[in-house]
Amino acid sequence: MTTTGTLGNRAEKLALDYLRKQGLSLLEKNYRSRFGEIDLIMRQNDYLVFVEVRYRKSGDYGGALASIDQRKQRKLRRTAETYLQRHKASDQACRFDILCLQGELDQAQIEWLENAF
User: Model's pTM, two decimal places?
Assistant: First the structure.
C-alpha cells in the first residue's frame, strides 16, 4: 500500500522530469515559507516559474485542477513573494504554472497549464 506522501513524491518527480524535457531547469524543490509550500521553482528563459503539482487518481470531484482554489492560489502567491524577497529578485519576471497528473502514475495523463493564475 502506498502512502499519500510517497505518491506525492512520485508525482513531483514525474512532473520535474516532464518539465525538464520541456526545457525548464530546476532551482528549488519544496520551497517552504510560513505561508505555505511551492512544489517546484524552475527557470524558463527569463522567467522564474513557480509550479504547483497536483495528482489525482480519478477525475471525480473535478480532478486535480479543481483542487487549486482561491485560498491555495493566495498561499502560493505569498510564498512566491517570500522567495522573491529572500533572493532579492523582486524585479524578476515570474509566473505560476500548474502541472496536473491524473490516472495511475505509471501511465498518468499530464496537463501543463502555463501562467495559470
Answer: 0.89
Cα–Cα nearest to 67, from 29, 76, 13: 76
**DSSP state, 58?**
S
Residue 12: all three cell numbers together = 513531483
pLDDT above 60: residue 1: no
CB atoms within 10 A of CB 15: 25
Looking up residue 13, the CATH number of its domain turns out to be: 3.40.1350.10
Residue given cell 524577497 in the structure block: 85
DSSP H helices in 61-105: 63-66, 70-86
Q: Quick one: cell of 62?
A: 473535478
Answer yes or no: are the C-beta atoms of 64 and 56 closer than 8 Å.
yes
Amino acid identity of residue 35, one-letter, is F
Task: Give the range of the structural domain holding residue 29, as residue numbers without chain letter.
Answer: 4-113
- Looking at residue 19, its amino acid is L
